[in-house]
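hey so i finaly got around to running the thing on Desulfoferrodoxin ferrous iron-binding domain from Methanolobus tindarius DSM 2278. pasting the sequence first so u can double check i didnt mess up the copy paste, my clipboard has been acting weird all day
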Amino acid sequence: MSSDINIQRAKDHDNLTDTEKKHIPVIEAPSEVKAGEPFDVKVTVGAIPHVMEEEHYIKWIELHLNGTLVGRKELQASEGKAEATFTAVGTEEMITAREIRNCTIHGFGVCGTCGTKSAIVNLKAVESCNVHGLWEDSKGIEIISSVVKDGKKCTWGSQL
Ligand SMILES: [Fe+2]
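ok and heres what it spat out for the 3d tokens, dont ask me to read them lol
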């Protein structure tokens, strides 16, 4: 399962090994989305397509948004392609939770006054290869609030 302690990640995204290129999930998603509006995320395994043969294939792909499972697609070798498309939705609650934690304009724990509010939340894909085990990758996606106040847009540090 995705909580497995043996999950593998890219050691250096700029210098992936061939095994990493075939297993690290590639996440295609918009860089920013509006809260409440569903968006599609395509996950492909991997940058070099993984084989889908009876003795060696990708068993499933999962997508998580902000630590919550969005969906899981079970795969068969006969499907030929290790990819899945999920529909996710960011929420106003994700933005509220983030703004109490860290705003680079107002400081730690004191935001709530920015104009256009947003939060960068974590989008994580996990896949399971029947031979090489579990692999994951993640990226930040900015959720924009539909509630707009006067003032500047929130800006965020690089932390997820
Ligand atoms: Fe594999």
